[in-house]
Amino acid sequence: MVAVVHVLAVNPVPARSQMGSSLGFHIILACFGVAFAAVTMTAEWIGIRRGDAAALLLARRWSKVMAVLVAVGAVSGTVLSYEMGLLWPGLMGRFGAAIGFPFSLEGIFFFLEAIFVGVYLYGWERLPPWAHWWSGVPIVVSGVLGAMSVVAANSWMNSPAGYTLSHGKLTSVNPVSVFFNASTPYETAHMVLAAYMVTGFLVAGVYAVGLLRGRRDRYHRLGFAIPFTIGGICAPLQVMMGDIIARFIATNQPVKFAAMEYVTTTTRDAPEWVGGIFINGKVYFGAAIPAFDSILVGFSPHTKVIGWDSVPASQRPPLVTLIHLSFDLMVGIGFFLLALAAWQAWWWWFHRRLLLTPWFLVPSAVSGVAAVAAMEAGWVVTEVGRQPWIVYRVLLVSQAVTPSTGVPITLGVILVLYAILTVVSIGVPMAMSRRWRRGTAAEEESEQVPYGPSPAGAP
Amino acid sequence: MSPTPEDIAAAAILVVVLAAYALFGGADFGGGIWDLLAGGPERGAAARELIDESITPVWEGNHVWLVFVLVVLWTSFPPAFAAVMTALFVPLSLSLLGIVLRGVGFAFRHTAQRLRMQQFTGATFAAASLITPFFMGTVVGAVATGQVPVHPAGNVLAAWTSPTAILTGFLFVAACAYLSAVFLVLEARQRGHQDLVRYFSLRATAAGVVTGALAGGTFAELSASSPYVYARLTGIALPLVAVSIAAGIAVLGMLWLRWYHALFLRVTAAIAVATVVGGWGLAQYPYLVPTSLPLAAGSAPTGSLVGVFVVAGLALLLVAPAFALLYLLQQRRVLTEADTDADLRLAAQVDRAPRGRPAAAPAPAGTSITRALVLAVLAVRVIRDVFSRSRRR
After folding, report:
1. Rounded Cα–Cα distance for residues A199 and A230 (Å)
2. Which of A225, A350, A392, B69 has its CA 20 to 30 A from that of A276?
3. Residue A131 and residue B15: Cα distance in Å, rounded?
């Protein structure tokens, strides 16, 4: 067999930018695919259990929005599977056989999800209430399992396992070990929680705006309370999970951790930097908490933290300032969301009603956008922090990138198209909500959504 | 080195998934093509509405098949995937552009308020439906003629601009249009639009004839551009080719006789297309890229292939029943006692309080004590945890 490793002198930056922007876009829609069904079904459960028409109406309208977002997600997901090959033939040619298994599982789960979104939409007027509720369960389950599968593929790039190489060629693969690599439990739990937080806080944010505008009826209060509660329950779990993961990264990918925390040299009593820009070996405008980084890593100031001097400069990630500030942003927003959830919980605990003052609602209205920012920042940390490796300590990004010269063009096209897709995925639900507020009931009845029944088509 | 049974099974799965995409995705693309050819906004209104009604329920869901094609290809035959993706970067990117534009156009079309905007988004949707199958066809043509190098150093323009590849592109477009027109005849009949039945029946016949002619042309081209594939097509794969031709003629016959049997017509048209995909697969055997990349050399380790089999088994086990459920629901009549959107709107507006029992039942006595106890226990545990940990260090 010819096993020539083409080390290509191609600049991987356009390809990396294209992959990053496509993933960064798709991940937001993916969050809705993972978590929106659970939010919708909670509303439906309340609606059926208590005979609450407002909750049922919410559930029904949310299911329509879910269908639109799943349909756009199907498009951006297709783009991603293309890009795996178009941009990274060097990765797929060598390791496609290993990374393929989690991806193919994800295919199944997405398929199931799309079909059951159809079942759920058709079922509204064709199934008895509880049977309909149960028809939504597969969407929730396959959403979570699908997220796990795709994130497992990413985890594998951080902690490659389950294969043997001889002379640079893959000779055996154990799909189970590929799937359950060292990073999988941490990354998947982190992402599933993130999906629930993004969805919960974004949907709650929409109704927070409605409440601020004076629409304080039961419909809007429920529309705020249900997703906010789901996001709020995940917030403390996510902060705990994040703490555990940071400690895992410190041992599993010490160089990434060093970039996250500005650890230049391996040291005890490592300080924790909050903010700050790294220029020429020094941190400017940052606040250092003495020895706190060591305490976070090993519960003691004397814990040794590995710095990025442990590897040669060519194996260190670029843009350490970006990595560190993204990490700080993610952690900061995580605590902001936790505080917001705790505030509402406190009020509910002692007063048994929702806290709906403007002081609370204004930050809640932006909580969804903040959650998205935190998630994107988190992905920046994992992905940029893994550089220059595409498969950690196995394959360099520069070995994986396509030799094709057209990438800057496709990057430009993708950016324009995704700007339009963003308008679609925000604009279509907004137009729907405007119609719901102003239009007649008959118009709402005849509304057509992807995967759903056509109004005239009932045979 | 000859291919192992696992290699052959994985290749068979790939061909089946490809055929599924050709059928389901092809019909979708064809709908867009007929939308493009339907004429001005008034003349084409009825046809467009029918196309819209039949596509919307599965909007872009059929891309899942394409994702499966890609994933099975890269898991089972990574070198072939890498080679195709590098050498055919341009046509693949263009087909992807079509997929995204289609999605955008379709989504906007339903919300666009003004006619001008609707026409623009509709045109985007329709044009994109033309782009995607054409460039996918050129990709298949490039592979079938063996023009894809095993280790390409970049784009290979000549591979997908050969006469065979371009012809294959047109063949794909025609086949999509044909398949879709046949399905639309049945959709129109089901909805009772007699004029549209005739409209699409005529177009299905025309598209069928054009598809046949293009297939003949491609076949003739192959004799010079890919002698290996041509020899196998006229040899071992001949039965499949014959079935395809017979099925194509049978569909034309049924349309001519106006025997619109919902199942027969659909299945026969599907067979005509699926056998072509199968014939292509068989003709390439045992090569991934004819005569330069054999199946055995391009296959993944057995572990990966077993993974693909497991996933394929899961797909049969899970996806098929789910589809059946969806189909049953689609056929089921609307429950009369179910609340409609209108009922819910009314109920939500009339009484803001829930209809059933009160929402917040008064807390029974004793819950506050329990709550305080639980809190206290938790607090003590957390504090003890923290201290015991620091003592250990």
Report:
1. 9
2. A392
3. 37
Out of B68, B93, B390, whose CB is closest to A406? Answer: B93
Q: How far apart are CA B280 and CA B301, in angstroms?
A: 25
Residue A336 has pLDDT above 90, yes or no: yes
Interface of A with B in 311-340 (CB under 8 A): none
Contact A450 B341 (CB under 8 A): no
Backbone phi, psi, residue B294, to 5°: -70, 155
DSSP string, B300-313: PPHHHHHHHHHHHH
pLDDT at res. B354: 42
B58 shares contact with chain A (CB less than 8 Å): yes
Peptide bond into A388 cis (omega under 30): yes
Contact across the interface for A124 and B306, Cβ inside 8 Å = no
Task: Report d(CA B278, CA A351) in Å as an integer.
Answer: 68
Rounded CA-CA distance A59/A64 in Å is 9
Does pTM surpass 0.90? no
Distance CA A250, CA A298 (A): 10
> Nearest by CB to B301, which of A51, A173, A431?
A173
Which of B58, B63, B293, B334 would you mutate first to test chain A, the one with the most A CBs within 10 A?
Answer: B63
Chain A contact present for B302, CB below 8 A? yes
pLDDT at res. B108: 72
- What's the rounded Cα separation, in Å, for the pair B58 and B285? 34
Q: What is the mean pLDDT of chain A?
A: 86
Is the minimum CB–CB distance between B317 and chain A shorter than 8 Å? Answer: no
Token pair 């941009």 is found at A87
* Contact residues on chain A for B329, CB-CB shorter than 8 A: 119, 122-123, 126-127
Selection from A63, A103, A184, A136 nearest residue A444 by Cα: A63
Tell me which residue of B26, B30, B58 sits closest to B274, measured CA to CA.
B26
- Higher pLDDT among residues A364 and A165, named by residue: A364
B311 and A444: CB-CB below 8 Å?
Answer: no
Report how many Cβ contacts below 8 Å link chain A to chain B: 312
B146-166 pLDDT, tens per residue?
Answer: 888 888 887 888 878 888 889
Q: Which residues contact A429 (CB under 8 A, 6 or more apart)?
A: A65, A68, A69
| B267-299 per-residue burial string, b: 16 or more CB within 10 A, e: under 16 | ebbbbbbbbbbbbbbbbbbebbbbeebbbebbb
Measured CA to CA, the distance from residue B200 to residue B187 in angstroms comes to 10
d(CA B148, CA B80) in angstroms, rounded, equals: 9
A153: tokens are 């593929």
Min CA distance, B273 vs chain A (Å)? 23
Low-confidence ranges of chain B (pLDDT < 70): 1, 56-61, 110-115, 331-340, 342, 347-369, 385-393
Other beta carbons within 10 angstroms of residue B243's beta carbon come to: 17
DSSP letters for B171-182: HHHHHHHHHHHH
Q: Which residues does chain B have within 8 Å of residue A51's beta carbon, measured at their own beta carbons?
A: 354-357
Q: How far is CA B203 from the centre of its chain?
A: 23
Mutate to test the interface with B, among A7, A62, A75, A421 (most CBs of B within 10 A): A75
